[in-house]
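Data availability excerpt. The first of two example chains:
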Amino acid sequence: MSASESSPAPTPPVALTPVPAPGRPHLAGLLAGVFLSCGLVLAAMVVTRAWVRIADAAAITVTGSARRNVSSDFVIWRASYTVSAPTLVEAQRRLRSDRDRVAAFVASAGVTNAVFAPIVITEVVGQDKQRMGQDETTVQRTVAFKLSQPVEIRSAEVDRVMQLDRDSVALLEQGVQLTPSVPEFIYTRSADAKVEMLGEATRDARARAEQISGHGGRRLGGLRSARMGVFQIAPLYSNETTWEGRNDTSSPEKTITAVVNATFQMR
């Protein structure tokens, strides 16, 4: 065998194509996708919050009020007459005499429902100084008895009782020590008026809301909520108010005020 036959021909080398490693362009694409997703989420959140704000802004809250002048339909008149005397028997005698005068005066005014309360007895105490040898002591003793009796009238005849109060000075001229209190004037139908006036205040609130929305190019929808404010009963034409409400009894003529805070839908 020749040398040429026993030695095979050499195989030519195979060329290998290298696989490229991830480069910067591929990484930039991934980051761009992440940022785009985040941007879409944030945009959706912004749009959602904006929609909520718009929905909340599609309402208007206004305050409505109603006022009504009324006359008291009930009055409470109170007074008290007082006597004093050195003895209890004499004080009681004088008190009975004054009671007869007060009862006659009330009856002459056309009032028949006067109520006389129990008698209040007070001892008037004085002090005497007594000397025993070189010592001096103070001794208390009763020098007089003071008796008083309250009287009260509750009536729906307001004018009649007011006239009685003005004429009560006649008892002083008769020697009766009468001390009248300031009459209490009450409007007994305030609960009914409150219901009616809350409706009036709500209508007033809607009228104000319609004016505001009309100037803004919007239309007013239905009532969403309403909250009642404090109820004020004050002397006639008075502007005094309190946070907890007021119920005046000093004046026969009164002004009632009702307030409502109402929220309406906007279209």
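And the second chain:
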Amino acid sequence: MPEKILVMDDEKEICELIRLYLENEGYTVYTAYTGEEALRITEREDLSLAVLDIMVPDMDGFEVCRRIREKHFFPIIMVTAKVEDLDKIRGLTMGADDYITKPFNPLELTARVKTQLRRWTRYNMHSAADSDTIEIRGLVISRSAHACTLNGEKLELTPLEFSILLYLCEHRGSVVSSEQLFEAVWKEKYFNSNNTVMVHIARLREKMHEPERRPKYVRTVWGIGYTVD
């Protein structure tokens, strides 16, 4: 799946220019012209990286960076017209990973994005091998503790519900059929047990306070199965 990148800048021309260059590299790009809009995208989408301009109308990029870092760890590149060292230090202190000043060459920004994503991918691969936790947009699952939290609140899941959610998250990005899910969780042969799976998915969504029509985590792919992306 294409990596998702957020670009925040109050100058639409700059947003569109960056979008063009990054989409040419195969990335999915979301643009925001205010801090609030950027934060909404951050919560709605599973981002791989953010490019944040410091000077936006409602809140500066430092504050956006700080609030993103409360929940997320993907790379952040700060963009600004300022060149003062104190601004760079402040951005890095807030959790930014890199810094670029305007005017910049879009090819340089693209190269920096690629570099940060390579580092992030290698880190994640190493972390996945060493950690027993899965984190997806505020959803945290611990295999060893057999526990799950959503935005800091513990989910009271039955063992079956926990196993369903864990299996779907472990196969994130793929569509899991009802048959595959049933045989993996129940450890039994699938004999038209779609209703069983459907009922447990419904209970799981209810406990996660998922809206029926547009769930944020466990989505139904009609005629095929379920997916977490």
